[in-house]
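Following the same procedure, sequence and fold were stored together, as reproduced here.

>
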Amino acid sequence: MAKGKPGKWAKVTIEEPFLIGKRGITITVGDRYGRKPLGYAKIAIGGIRWTPFNKQKGRTVKWDKLVEL
């Protein structure tokens, strides 16, 4: 397990259900103070895909794996 302070912060509160289409929803993730963008989190039917801001290769986490965490 990683030690120290986390580098990415995300907090989302949604009061009502909404549909996620095939294209998904893209969220820009910034540093703790919102000054520096760190990357993009795309939430879609297949899972969550993280792409760093400098356009390196992203990582996908399927919903089944996310439940295990």
